[in-house]
Design goal:
Order of helices and strands: HHH
Number of domains: 1
Strand content: under 5%
Helix content: 55-70%
Domain Carrier: 4-45
Number of strands: 0
Structural class: mainly alpha
Shape: globular
Keywords: Phosphopantetheine, Phosphoprotein
Pfam families: PP-binding
Protein name: Carrier domain-containing protein
Number of helices: 3
Largest sheet: none
Length: 54
């Protein structure tokens, strides 16, 4: 699992990803988490899925 930041994810893209999850699923995704080292796409999806089920 490669960190999103290592794949080139920057802060603007993180804000856009957060907005997408908020608009389409009603789920908050933390920009700080998305930007943190070691935070992969699979981890993001797991976290969003857990929040979405609540």
């Amino acid at each position: 699992h490669v960190a999103l930041a290592e794949l080139g994810m920057d802060s603007l893209q993180s804000v856009r990803v957060r907005g997408w999850f908020l608009r389409h699923l009603g789920v908050e995704a933390s920009v700080l988490s998305i930007m943190s080292s070691g935070y992969s796409l699979s981890r993001l999806c797991e976290d969003v899925l857990v929040s979405w089920r609540k």
